[in-house]
């Protein structure tokens, strides 16, 4: 009886491996070719700007969400490059980094990837330290998309000294941010961390280490 059970277990294990092998090409096909070309650049940027514990899969997913890995992407509101920095944000970030106007190059992929990771890390450091890494990254992504000041205002709007991430999410639209922008802002980290990051799982961790 025990031998029969072992054979059944082996059968289902083999079936699972066959299924995973069949799904792997599908998952890989969801990653643009341009992403593969820039993979080494992103990893270098992640390690130099964030450290060895950088959430590379999440960062790759964010680039995917922002620009689809298109170097010359420009949005209808003027956000440019792979990281989709608005001109004002790019100017502010370059000033913070001590870069000259000539060095500030949002459409340069090397600059864009370093800036995306560096800005994410800057935001991550300003999230509540008592949050779990997943929640801190969620907050940093919301701030990247819609502004750290808006998130902080919503945290105060909860009326709690240490609101949870979920409580602040529920307060979206109750402070400086117009409620009509909440679906996009709340959907941004959800799509990056829950939908896109698994496609880049082989690149590295999805959460900060």
Spell out the blueprint of helices and strands.
Elements (H helix, E strand, L loop, with lengths): L1 H28 L3 H5 L1 H11 L6 H12 L19 H11 L11 H16 L8 H14 L1 H10 L7 H6 L11 H15 L13
Helix pairs in contact: 3-6, 4-10, 6-7, 7-8, 7-10
Task: Describe this protein's structure.
The structure is a single chain. The chain is mainly alpha-helical. It folds into 2 domains: 1-30; 35-203, Lysozyme (Orthogonal Bundle). Helix content is 61%, strand content 0%. The chain contains 10 helices and no strands. It has helices at residues 2-29, 33-37, 39-49, 56-67, 87-97, 109-124, 133-146, 148-157, 165-170, 182-196. Helix 3 runs parallel beside helix 6, helix 6 crosses helix 7 (133-146) and helix 7 (133-146) packs across helix 10. The termini are far apart.
The second-level CATH architecture of the largest domain is Orthogonal Bundle
Classified by CATH, the class of the largest domain is Mainly Alpha
The largest pleated sheet is described as:
none
Structural class: mainly alpha
Question: How many distinct beta strands?
Answer: 0
Rounded to the nearest angstrom, the radius of gyration is 20 Å
Summary, kept brief:
This protein has 209 residues and is an all-alpha fold.
Keywords, please?
209 residues; mainly alpha; Lysozyme; 2 domains; 61% helix
């Amino acid at each position: 009886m025990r031998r029969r059970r072992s054979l059944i277990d082996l059968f289902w294990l083999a079936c699972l491996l066959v299924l995973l092998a069949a799904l792997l090409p599908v998952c890989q096909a969801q990653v643009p070719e341009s992403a593969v070309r820039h993979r080494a650049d992103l990893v270098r940027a992640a390690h130099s700007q964030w450290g060895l514990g950088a959430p590379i899969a999440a960062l790759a997913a964010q680039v995917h969400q922002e620009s689809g890995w298109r170097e010359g992407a420009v949005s209808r509101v003027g956000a440019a490059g792979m990281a989709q920095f608005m001109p004002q944000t790019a100017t502010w970030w370059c000033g913070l980094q001590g870069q000259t106007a000539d060095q500030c190059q949002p459409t340069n992929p090397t600059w864009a990837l370093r800036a995306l990771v560096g800005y994410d890390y800057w935001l991550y450091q300003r999230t509540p330290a008592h949050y779990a890494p997943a929640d801190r990254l969620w907050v940093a992504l919301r701030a990247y998309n819609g502004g750290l000041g808006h998130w902080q205002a919503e945290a105060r709007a909860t009326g709690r000294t240490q609101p949870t991430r979920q409580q602040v999410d529920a307060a979206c639209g109750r402070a400086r941010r117009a409620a009509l922008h909440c679906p996009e802002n709340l959907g941004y980290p959800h799509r990056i961390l829950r939908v896109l990051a698994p496609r880049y799982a082989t690149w590295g961790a999805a959460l900060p280490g």
